[in-house]
Structure formats: structure tokens, C-alpha cells
Specification:
This protein is an alpha/beta fold. It has a single domain, classed as Glutaconate Coenzyme A-transferase. 14% of the residues lie in helices and 25% in strands. The chain contains 4 helices and 13 strands. It has helices at 4-12, 84-92, 128-134, 195-200, and strands spanning 20-23, 42-45, 49-52, 75-81, 98-102, 105-107, 112-113, 138-142, 153-154, 169-172, 175-180, 183-189, 206-207. The longest helix has 9 residues, at 4-12. The chain is globular. The two termini are 16 Å apart.
Amino acid sequence: MLNKEQIAQRIAKEVKDGYYVNLGIGIPTLVANYVPENLNVEFQSENGVLGMGPFPFEGEEDADIINAGKQTITTLPGASFFDSAFSFGMIRSQKVDLTILGAMEVSEKGDIANWKIPGKMVKGMGGAMDLVASAENIIVAMMHTNKEGESKVLRECTLPLTGVQCVRKIVSNLAVMEVTPNGLKLLERAPGVSVEKIVELTEAPLLIEGTIPEMQFES
């Protein structure tokens, strides 16, 4: 199984040169640490930052420079700062090429629930609904099961939805899956994890074609 850093490292392979990318709270924020230096990529945060870099080293944090999750960040040369209205204008006008979000649940149709558990206090949805409504390419970074070992990749989401049929790909600690018109297609498996184990821990049916390769990581 993958840890959170490895999930982020695998998702970083989906980032292409010239992309504008929005990173959600949680595992997605780690993706910036693994994008190859030779790629020209701009990371955007809905609180009003364009040009985020990796997380700062301990002792080098600047409390005035944060992302939407209130984590301290670094900025790259040429980075810019602006108000939230301008930031959401960028999102709503589809200037962001790739959005990477965490999720509590994802359905086989690409529905996502990532903002509320009934009965628990939350401050609000934040920018999640704008992101899923506007982005054409959404990748979800998540753990495959909850603390009870139950699948978070479902036929139908049970939690309040953030967006409907918007997720393109899911990268979990067990597998990489693609949302297709015919259902979820298993693309890759985590090192040491069998296809049978992934099927066992996934409520939604999986399309399996041929031999499923293991994810590859640089040593």
C-alpha cells in the first residue's frame, strides 16, 4: 500500500508542462513537492496565490504566505497574489487545467463527496463546489478505505455531494482508477497489492483488462 507521500508522487506524473493546477487540502498539497523541476507548472490556490512552490523547510516558514488550507508555503519567482474574487474568477472561467482534490467518497460515475459528514460541524464548502463545477480534469487523491476498512470507492456516494460526474481519475493507496462511460477502469495497482485485494476492498465494480501493472516510483 502507498503512503500519502507516494500517492502525491504518483499524481505528480499526471501534471504536464504548461499546466495551471489547483491543489485541494490534504494529500493534494503534497503534489507540488514531486513535480519535476524541468516542467513549467503554475500552482494556484483559491485564497489568492498563483505560483506556489514546495512546502518550506522547518525554520524557513513565512506565516503571511499560506495556501487555502492555512498551511505555510513557498512561492516561485514570478508568483502573484490577489483577492479571492479574482481567484475564483480564474477558476470559474476554466483557466485551471487540472484540479487535484481529496475525497471522503467517490462513486463509479465520478460523483465526489468531500466536504461534509452529517452531524459534524463544518465551516462551509469552501471552494470545492466551484472547482468541481468548472474544472474539466479532476483527479482525486484518497485512501481507498475508511478507518473501519470499508470502501470509499462506491456505486453511489452516501454523503452530501460536492459534484456530479466530474472526477476523471482516482489515485488511492491501493490503485489508480479511471472513470469511464462504462464504469471504473483499473489502470495500476500499488506495489505488492494484488488485483484480487483491490476488487475485495472496492464496493464499485471494476473494469479489468489484461495484466494490471504495478505503479512505478523512482528510487
